[in-house]
Design a protein that fits this description.
The structure is a single chain. The protein is α+β, with helices and mostly antiparallel strands and about 600 residues long. It folds into 4 domains: about 90 residues, DNA Primase, Chain A, CATH 3.90.580.10; about 140 residues, DNA primase DNAg catalytic core, N-terminal domain, CATH 3.90.980.10; about 60 residues; about 140 residues. Helix content is about 50%, strand content about 10%. The chain has 26 helices and 16 strands. The protein has a 5-stranded antiparallel beta sheet with strand order 1-2-3-4-5. A 5-stranded mixed beta sheet has the order 13-12-14-15-16. Helix 3 crosses helix 4, helix 17 crosses helix 19 and helix 20 packs across helix 25. The two termini are about 45 Å apart.
């Protein structure tokens, strides 16, 4: 832990998890908990639970869970320290400067330095664009019809042609060469030394969702190659987990995102009144970027270039978006190359109409597929119908598949019965059946003996924390040493300590750990589903069986280690005696 425990707990208590999560996920109250679609995996039925009483979240579909810190870490891709900082700022809590480990201090310091040097570089480029040496860049942007307000909003700048001016400027501000190079602002040549990475380019600062400059894209003036040059990946810049313009688009309050290919497309659309536009960062669209968009539970409209390369890129993006469970349509850019050119010639209203008429991604794929077939050739036409049937097999829901089947049959003049037979035939030939995937998106697996042991221990944790009145009974037979998993044992020590002192805050247990995987494990400890039991007698028997199972597992665990651990022998003797007593004892939950 990098901050004192009492400070972390103060931050947690002043950030109600339901309020925080509601800012990211649409939640509905059901009973004592709130539920929504999990932002961390693809699902159609809500299995993502947020408990106000426990101050924890847990997804019964993918198993991720934790407290408010865990959620921010997972959603924003933050470290524990960054999550504490964000939530402290949200709640107005002042954080002390002490409490970091040396390693974390070094890492956090480096990230801070990289953000600072990028911010300073962005200021320098911004100034250059508005100075005599930035005239080339200024004329280019004016030709692209960008106004000063838009250029200021996106922090556009210019990297001058001559000399290593940026390096000289950053050195004058006290930044060392190794930091300038690590930020991707400079390269190194054995003969000439350090040199400016960006020169004679219009500069596009790339910001994360918190508006911090994490990298740059530079568009060359003239015919030099490459046309666009981007910052390399670094400690603060991960191309696959960021999107250009997302910092503005995420708060645009629109019911869709417009996904483009280029920086200028995004900027032109924003200036035209479409603040939901964003783009990938000089690379093909990635599953990581789809994961970012999934969090906002909205439709994506593709506004890719209208040439062959753009259409292929659109097909790849559709596949990735579909895999992430994101609805997608394609905007027709014809007869223009890209959104920037379209807006320039036709204006915002015509583009808005094209958005309304956007083609469903499935039919766009079919239209692209049509181009590969000659419908005058019976063999080619039959092959198209088979491929079409194969694509219909991809729909999980029977109703959805049938609706598309009817629409496709009408569009391509095939009888629905013939197409349905072809779908069944294709499914059988490929070894899959339509709509056979589990609804949760998680495969059912038979538990191994080790998994069963861990589940019994999780059930006991859930029982203790959900029904604290049962703790005194459990504590008569179970101690922290009976938990055979090291992480479980650490949590048990804290649970027993807190319960004996008068109570426990579920979320406090998660804060004992700083790693996301540990948060997930601890959350699972207190969210194992207990079977619905109708009578007191059934509950008493179930609790007795769980305690007995955990005790037997403890006995087996220490018995195996008697030869290597002297203390194991003492524990075996103790557990054996308790087992004998437990086998003769009836557990009563409600005495008197």
């Amino acid at each position: 832990m990098y901050y004192p425990e009492e400070v972390v707990e103060e931050v947690r208590m002043k950030n109600d998890i339901v309020d925080v999560v509601s800012g990211y996920v649409h939640l509905q109250k059901k009973g004592s908990n709130h539920f929504g679609l999990c932002p961390f995996h693809n699902e159609k039925s809500p299995s993502f639970s947020v408990s106000g009483s426990k101050q924890m979240f847990y997804c019964f579909g993918c198993g991720i869970g934790g407290n408010v810190f865990t959620f921010v870490m997972e959603y924003e891709n933050y470290s524990f320290t960054e999550a504490v900082k964000l939530l402290a700022d949200r709640a107005g809590v002042s954080l002390p400067e002490t409490g970091y480990s040396q390693e974390e201090k070094k890492k956090e310091s480096r990230k801070t330095q990289l953000l600072e040097v990028n911010k300073e570089a962005a200021k320098y480029f911004y100034y250059c664009l508005r100075s005599p040496q930035g005239e080339t860049g200024s004329q280019y942007l004016q030709k692209r019809q960008l106004n000063e307000e838009t250029m200021k909003r996106f922090g556009l700048g210019f990297a001058p042609v001559s000399g290593n001016q940026l390096i000289k400027y950053l050195r004058s501000k006290g930044y060392r060469d190794d930091l300038i190079q690590e930020a991707g602002l400079a390269g190194f040549d054995e003969r000439y030394g350090l040199y400016d990475k960006f020169w004679n380019r219009v500069m596009f600062p790339i910001q994360d969702i918190n508006h911090r400059v994490i990298g740059f894209g530079g568009r060359v003036m003239g015919e030099a190659k490459p046309k666009y040059l981007n910052s390399p990946e670094s400690l603060i810049f991960d191309k696959g987990r960021n999107l250009y313009g997302l910092n503005f688009a995420r708060s645009s309050r629109q019911n869709n995102f417009i996904l483009c290919e280029g920086y200028m497309d995004v900027i032109a659309l924003h200036q035209a009144g479409f603040p939901q536009a964003l783009a990938s960062l000089g690379t093909a669209f990635t599953p990581g970027q789809a994961g970012l968009l999934k969090r906002y539970e909205t439709e994506v409209l593709l506004a890719y270039d209208g040439d062959g390369a753009g259409m292929k890129a659109a097909l790849r993006a559709i596949s990735i978006l579909r895999e992430a469970g994101i609805g997608c349509k394609v905007i027709d850019m014809s007869p223009y190359k890209d959104p920037d050119e379209f807006i320039s010639h036709q204006g915002a209203e015509v583009f808005r109409q094209r958005m309304a008429e956007a083609e469903g991604s499935f039919f766009f794929e079919l239209r692209m597929m049509e181009k590969e077939h000659d419908f005058k050739d019976p063999e080619s036409k039959t092959d198209f119908h088979k491929r079409l049937a194969g694509k219909l097999c991809d729909f999980e829901e029977e109703v959805e598949r049938e609706n598309y089947l009817q629409a496709v049959a009408e569009k391509y003049h095939i009888s629905p019965e013939s197409l349905r037979k072809l779908v069944i035939s294709q499914a059988a030939r490929s070894g899959i059946g339509p709509a056979v995937r589990p609804k949760s998106g998680m495969a059912d697996k038979k538990r191994t003996p080790e998994e069963n042991k861990r589940r019994n221990q999780r059930l006991l944790f859930t029982w203790m924390t959900d029904e604290p009145e049962a703790f005194p009974i459990i504590a008569k037979y179970i101690s922290p040493e009976d938990f055979t998993d090291e992480l479980y044992r650490q949590v048990a020590v804290r649970v027993f300590e807190k319960m004996k002192a008068g109570g426990i805050h579920h979320a406090d247990l998660v804060s004992m750990f700083s790693e996301g995987e540990e948060h997930k494990e601890v959350a699972a400890l207190m969210n194992e589903r207990l079977e619905a039991l109708d009578t007191v007698q059934e509950k008493e028997k179930a609790l007795h069986d769980i305690i007995l199972a955990v005790k037997n597992e403890s006995f087996a665990y220490y018995s195996e280690r008697m030869g290597e651990n002297p203390q194991a022998f003492q524990q075996v003797v103790k557990v054996k005696k308790e087992l004998e007593e437990l086998s003769k004892t009836h557990i009563s939950l409600y005495q008197g």
